[in-house]
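Hi Y.,

Following your request, here is the sequence exactly as I used it, all 303 residues.
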Amino acid sequence: MKNPELVIMAAGMGSRYGGLKQIDTVDPEGHIIIDYSIFDAIKAGFKDVTFIIKKEIEKDFREVMDAHLAGKDINVKYVYQELDKLPEGYTVPDGRRKPWGTAHAILCCLGTVDAPFAVINADDYYGANAFTKIYNFLKNSTDDEKYHFAMVGYRIKNTVTEQGTVSRGICQANDDGMLTEIIERTKIGTANGKIYFTEDGVDTELDPDALVSMNLWGFTPAYIQECAKRFPEFLDKNLPVNPEKCEFFLPTVVAELIAEGKADVKVLDNSDKWYGVTYKEDKVAVAKAFEDLKAAGVYPKNF
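Below is the corresponding structure, written out as C-alpha coordinates. Let me know if you'd prefer a different format.
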Protein backbone atom coordinates (compact mmCIF):
# COMPACT_ATOMS: atom_id res chain seq x y z
CA MET A 1 0.00 0.00 0.00
CA LYS A 2 1.22 3.50 -0.81
CA ASN A 3 2.17 5.77 2.06
CA PRO A 4 -0.63 8.23 2.92
CA GLU A 5 -0.35 11.73 1.51
CA LEU A 6 -1.47 15.10 2.84
CA VAL A 7 -3.60 17.47 0.76
CA ILE A 8 -3.82 21.09 1.90
CA MET A 9 -6.63 23.28 0.55
CA ALA A 10 -5.14 26.75 0.15
CA ALA A 11 -7.03 28.25 -2.78
CA GLY A 12 -9.29 30.57 -0.77
CA MET A 13 -8.84 34.30 -1.23
CA GLY A 14 -9.55 35.33 2.38
CA SER A 15 -12.42 37.70 1.60
CA ARG A 16 -13.52 37.90 5.25
CA TYR A 17 -9.91 38.00 6.45
CA GLY A 18 -8.81 40.77 4.13
CA GLY A 19 -5.80 39.10 2.53
CA LEU A 20 -3.89 35.87 1.97
CA LYS A 21 -4.33 34.35 5.42
CA GLN A 22 -2.69 31.13 4.19
CA ILE A 23 0.74 32.82 4.36
CA ASP A 24 0.19 35.37 7.13
CA THR A 25 2.63 34.90 10.00
CA VAL A 26 1.29 33.91 13.42
CA ASP A 27 4.34 34.09 15.69
CA PRO A 28 7.48 36.24 16.20
CA GLU A 29 9.62 33.61 14.43
CA GLY A 30 7.67 34.09 11.19
CA HIS A 31 5.82 30.77 11.13
CA ILE A 32 2.45 30.44 9.39
CA ILE A 33 -0.28 28.01 10.41
CA ILE A 34 0.73 25.62 7.62
CA ASP A 35 4.18 25.29 9.23
CA TYR A 36 2.60 23.83 12.35
CA SER A 37 0.48 21.44 10.28
CA ILE A 38 3.49 20.27 8.27
CA PHE A 39 5.51 19.80 11.47
CA ASP A 40 2.75 17.61 12.94
CA ALA A 41 2.19 15.75 9.67
CA ILE A 42 5.86 14.81 9.25
CA LYS A 43 5.99 13.66 12.87
CA ALA A 44 2.93 11.47 12.22
CA GLY A 45 4.54 9.83 9.17
CA PHE A 46 3.42 11.83 6.11
CA LYS A 47 6.09 12.30 3.44
CA ASP A 48 4.14 13.86 0.56
CA VAL A 49 2.04 17.03 0.49
CA THR A 50 -0.10 18.48 -2.30
CA PHE A 51 -1.14 22.12 -2.11
CA ILE A 52 -4.35 23.19 -3.84
CA ILE A 53 -3.95 26.85 -4.81
CA LYS A 54 -5.13 29.41 -7.34
CA LYS A 55 -2.87 30.55 -10.16
CA GLU A 56 -3.23 34.18 -9.08
CA ILE A 57 -1.64 33.51 -5.68
CA GLU A 58 0.98 31.06 -6.95
CA LYS A 59 3.96 33.44 -6.98
CA ASP A 60 3.43 34.74 -3.45
CA PHE A 61 2.43 31.37 -2.03
CA ARG A 62 5.30 29.36 -3.52
CA GLU A 63 7.83 31.99 -2.59
CA VAL A 64 6.85 31.60 1.07
CA MET A 65 6.46 27.82 1.04
CA ASP A 66 9.74 27.18 -0.83
CA ALA A 67 11.55 29.02 1.94
CA HIS A 68 9.59 27.47 4.80
CA LEU A 69 9.84 23.88 3.51
CA ALA A 70 13.52 24.00 2.55
CA GLY A 71 15.30 21.11 4.24
CA LYS A 72 12.06 19.49 5.44
CA ASP A 73 11.62 15.75 4.87
CA ILE A 74 8.58 16.10 2.64
CA ASN A 75 7.87 16.02 -1.09
CA VAL A 76 5.75 18.86 -2.48
CA LYS A 77 3.25 18.99 -5.36
CA TYR A 78 0.85 21.70 -6.53
CA VAL A 79 -2.55 21.57 -8.22
CA TYR A 80 -4.71 24.51 -9.23
CA GLN A 81 -8.34 25.18 -8.45
CA GLU A 82 -9.65 27.52 -11.13
CA LEU A 83 -13.16 28.59 -12.04
CA ASP A 84 -12.78 27.26 -15.58
CA LYS A 85 -11.79 23.77 -14.42
CA LEU A 86 -15.16 22.41 -15.48
CA PRO A 87 -16.41 19.28 -17.25
CA GLU A 88 -16.61 19.43 -21.02
CA GLY A 89 -19.66 21.34 -22.19
CA TYR A 90 -19.86 23.68 -19.18
CA THR A 91 -18.77 27.32 -18.98
CA VAL A 92 -18.24 29.77 -16.13
CA PRO A 93 -21.45 31.75 -15.53
CA ASP A 94 -21.35 35.51 -16.05
CA GLY A 95 -20.52 37.22 -12.77
CA ARG A 96 -19.13 34.10 -11.10
CA ARG A 97 -16.14 34.92 -8.87
CA LYS A 98 -16.59 32.46 -6.01
CA PRO A 99 -14.63 29.15 -6.13
CA TRP A 100 -16.69 26.03 -6.76
CA GLY A 101 -16.18 24.64 -3.23
CA THR A 102 -14.18 22.08 -1.31
CA ALA A 103 -15.29 18.98 -3.25
CA HIS A 104 -14.25 20.75 -6.44
CA ALA A 105 -10.88 21.48 -4.80
CA ILE A 106 -10.36 17.77 -4.21
CA LEU A 107 -11.52 17.01 -7.75
CA CYS A 108 -8.61 19.14 -8.96
CA CYS A 109 -6.24 16.49 -7.50
CA LEU A 110 -7.40 13.96 -10.12
CA GLY A 111 -4.30 12.49 -11.77
CA THR A 112 -1.96 13.90 -9.10
CA VAL A 113 -2.97 12.17 -5.86
CA ASP A 114 -3.21 8.38 -6.21
CA ALA A 115 -2.64 7.21 -2.62
CA PRO A 116 -4.78 7.33 0.53
CA PHE A 117 -4.80 10.95 1.61
CA ALA A 118 -5.73 13.30 4.42
CA VAL A 119 -7.33 16.66 3.66
CA ILE A 120 -6.92 19.83 5.73
CA ASN A 121 -7.54 23.55 5.39
CA ALA A 122 -4.47 25.77 5.12
CA ASP A 123 -5.73 28.26 7.68
CA ASP A 124 -6.76 25.82 10.42
CA TYR A 125 -4.67 24.39 13.26
CA TYR A 126 -5.70 20.83 14.10
CA GLY A 127 -3.22 19.62 16.75
CA ALA A 128 -0.66 16.81 16.63
CA ASN A 129 -3.09 14.11 17.82
CA ALA A 130 -5.31 14.67 14.80
CA PHE A 131 -2.52 13.96 12.31
CA THR A 132 -1.42 10.83 14.17
CA LYS A 133 -4.98 9.50 14.24
CA ILE A 134 -5.70 10.12 10.57
CA TYR A 135 -2.31 8.79 9.41
CA ASN A 136 -2.72 5.56 11.39
CA PHE A 137 -6.20 5.09 9.94
CA LEU A 138 -5.07 5.67 6.36
CA LYS A 139 -2.03 3.42 6.47
CA ASN A 140 -4.23 0.48 7.48
CA SER A 141 -7.31 1.19 5.36
CA THR A 142 -8.28 -0.40 2.04
CA ASP A 143 -11.53 -0.30 0.10
CA ASP A 144 -13.55 -3.49 -0.45
CA GLU A 145 -17.28 -3.62 -1.19
CA LYS A 146 -17.36 -0.16 0.40
CA TYR A 147 -15.08 2.83 0.52
CA HIS A 148 -13.61 3.22 4.00
CA PHE A 149 -13.03 6.85 4.95
CA ALA A 150 -12.42 8.70 8.22
CA MET A 151 -13.03 12.09 9.74
CA VAL A 152 -11.40 13.74 12.74
CA GLY A 153 -14.27 15.21 14.74
CA TYR A 154 -14.10 18.22 17.03
CA ARG A 155 -16.48 19.52 19.67
CA ILE A 156 -18.16 22.62 18.32
CA LYS A 157 -17.34 24.59 21.48
CA ASN A 158 -13.65 24.21 20.52
CA THR A 159 -14.13 25.50 16.98
CA VAL A 160 -16.03 28.80 17.11
CA THR A 161 -14.76 32.37 16.92
CA GLU A 162 -15.99 35.45 18.74
CA GLN A 163 -15.43 37.55 15.60
CA GLY A 164 -18.35 36.42 13.45
CA THR A 165 -20.01 33.37 11.94
CA VAL A 166 -18.32 30.26 10.56
CA SER A 167 -19.27 27.23 8.47
CA ARG A 168 -19.17 23.78 10.02
CA GLY A 169 -20.40 20.32 9.12
CA ILE A 170 -22.63 19.19 12.04
CA CYS A 171 -22.17 15.45 12.47
CA GLN A 172 -23.98 12.50 14.00
CA ALA A 173 -22.23 9.21 14.80
CA ASN A 174 -23.64 5.84 15.91
CA ASP A 175 -22.51 3.78 18.90
CA ASP A 176 -19.77 2.19 16.78
CA GLY A 177 -18.26 5.59 16.04
CA MET A 178 -19.38 5.60 12.40
CA LEU A 179 -20.68 8.78 10.79
CA THR A 180 -24.41 8.62 10.10
CA GLU A 181 -25.20 12.20 9.09
CA ILE A 182 -23.45 15.45 8.28
CA ILE A 183 -25.25 18.72 7.58
CA GLU A 184 -23.34 21.79 6.42
CA ARG A 185 -24.28 24.89 8.42
CA THR A 186 -22.88 28.09 6.97
CA LYS A 187 -23.80 30.62 9.68
CA ILE A 188 -22.69 29.39 13.10
CA GLY A 189 -22.05 32.06 15.74
CA THR A 190 -22.01 32.77 19.47
CA ALA A 191 -24.10 35.04 21.66
CA ASN A 192 -24.54 35.26 25.43
CA GLY A 193 -22.35 32.23 25.96
CA LYS A 194 -24.39 30.05 23.62
CA ILE A 195 -23.71 28.63 20.16
CA TYR A 196 -26.31 28.81 17.43
CA PHE A 197 -26.77 28.58 13.69
CA THR A 198 -28.95 30.87 11.60
CA GLU A 199 -31.08 29.69 8.70
CA ASP A 200 -33.78 31.69 6.95
CA GLY A 201 -33.50 34.32 9.68
CA VAL A 202 -34.16 31.83 12.50
CA ASP A 203 -31.55 31.12 15.22
CA THR A 204 -31.27 27.54 16.49
CA GLU A 205 -29.16 26.71 19.54
CA LEU A 206 -26.52 23.98 19.23
CA ASP A 207 -25.17 21.63 21.89
CA PRO A 208 -21.63 22.86 22.69
CA ASP A 209 -20.44 19.23 22.62
CA ALA A 210 -21.94 18.59 19.19
CA LEU A 211 -19.49 16.90 16.83
CA VAL A 212 -18.35 18.94 13.84
CA SER A 213 -16.12 18.50 10.84
CA MET A 214 -13.21 20.89 10.44
CA ASN A 215 -12.38 19.46 7.01
CA LEU A 216 -9.83 16.98 8.33
CA TRP A 217 -10.76 13.89 6.36
CA GLY A 218 -9.09 10.67 5.37
CA PHE A 219 -9.95 9.30 1.92
CA THR A 220 -8.88 6.71 -0.59
CA PRO A 221 -8.41 7.87 -4.21
CA ALA A 222 -11.93 6.63 -4.92
CA TYR A 223 -13.26 9.81 -3.32
CA ILE A 224 -11.65 11.91 -6.06
CA GLN A 225 -13.28 9.73 -8.71
CA GLU A 226 -16.66 10.15 -7.01
CA CYS A 227 -16.25 13.94 -7.02
CA ALA A 228 -15.49 13.83 -10.73
CA LYS A 229 -18.58 11.74 -11.40
CA ARG A 230 -20.90 13.90 -9.28
CA PHE A 231 -19.74 17.37 -10.26
CA PRO A 232 -21.73 17.52 -13.54
CA GLU A 233 -24.87 16.45 -11.65
CA PHE A 234 -24.23 19.23 -9.12
CA LEU A 235 -23.83 21.80 -11.89
CA ASP A 236 -27.00 20.69 -13.68
CA LYS A 237 -29.01 21.04 -10.48
CA ASN A 238 -27.53 24.26 -9.09
CA LEU A 239 -26.46 26.48 -11.98
CA PRO A 240 -30.03 27.29 -13.00
CA VAL A 241 -30.92 28.52 -9.48
CA ASN A 242 -27.68 29.94 -8.05
CA PRO A 243 -25.06 30.39 -10.79
CA GLU A 244 -22.85 32.89 -8.96
CA LYS A 245 -22.58 31.32 -5.50
CA CYS A 246 -23.47 27.61 -5.47
CA GLU A 247 -20.73 25.44 -3.93
CA PHE A 248 -19.86 21.76 -4.32
CA PHE A 249 -19.12 20.86 -0.68
CA LEU A 250 -16.82 18.02 0.35
CA PRO A 251 -19.14 16.85 3.20
CA THR A 252 -22.11 16.77 0.83
CA VAL A 253 -20.40 14.15 -1.34
CA VAL A 254 -19.54 12.16 1.80
CA ALA A 255 -23.17 12.30 2.96
CA GLU A 256 -24.39 11.10 -0.44
CA LEU A 257 -21.97 8.15 -0.43
CA ILE A 258 -23.08 7.12 3.07
CA ALA A 259 -26.77 7.40 2.14
CA GLU A 260 -26.18 5.29 -0.97
CA GLY A 261 -24.37 2.60 1.05
CA LYS A 262 -21.17 3.11 -0.93
CA ALA A 263 -19.00 4.35 1.95
CA ASP A 264 -18.60 4.31 5.68
CA VAL A 265 -16.76 6.94 7.68
CA LYS A 266 -15.00 6.31 10.97
CA VAL A 267 -15.20 9.30 13.32
CA LEU A 268 -11.90 9.83 15.12
CA ASP A 269 -12.87 11.90 18.14
CA ASN A 270 -10.43 14.66 19.05
CA SER A 271 -10.87 16.81 22.14
CA ASP A 272 -8.10 19.26 21.14
CA LYS A 273 -8.94 22.88 20.55
CA TRP A 274 -9.00 24.15 17.00
CA TYR A 275 -7.40 27.47 16.11
CA GLY A 276 -7.98 29.33 12.87
CA VAL A 277 -8.04 32.74 11.25
CA THR A 278 -11.42 33.15 9.62
CA TYR A 279 -11.30 36.87 10.44
CA LYS A 280 -8.37 39.28 10.83
CA GLU A 281 -9.32 39.77 14.47
CA ASP A 282 -8.77 36.04 15.14
CA LYS A 283 -5.01 36.43 14.67
CA VAL A 284 -4.33 37.80 18.18
CA ALA A 285 -5.87 34.77 19.88
CA VAL A 286 -4.16 32.35 17.48
CA ALA A 287 -0.75 33.96 18.03
CA LYS A 288 -1.23 33.72 21.81
CA ALA A 289 -2.19 30.05 21.50
CA PHE A 290 0.97 29.20 19.58
CA GLU A 291 3.15 31.04 22.08
CA ASP A 292 1.51 29.02 24.87
CA LEU A 293 2.06 25.75 22.97
CA LYS A 294 5.75 26.56 22.50
CA ALA A 295 6.11 27.55 26.15
CA ALA A 296 4.60 24.18 27.07
CA GLY A 297 7.16 22.36 24.90
CA VAL A 298 4.67 21.14 22.29
CA TYR A 299 6.67 22.90 19.56
CA PRO A 300 10.25 24.18 19.47
CA LYS A 301 10.81 27.90 19.12
CA ASN A 302 12.20 27.44 15.63
CA PHE A 303 11.46 24.52 13.33
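The helical segments are 33-44, 58-69, 102-107, 128-139, 222-238, 250-259, 283-295.

Thanks again,
Q.
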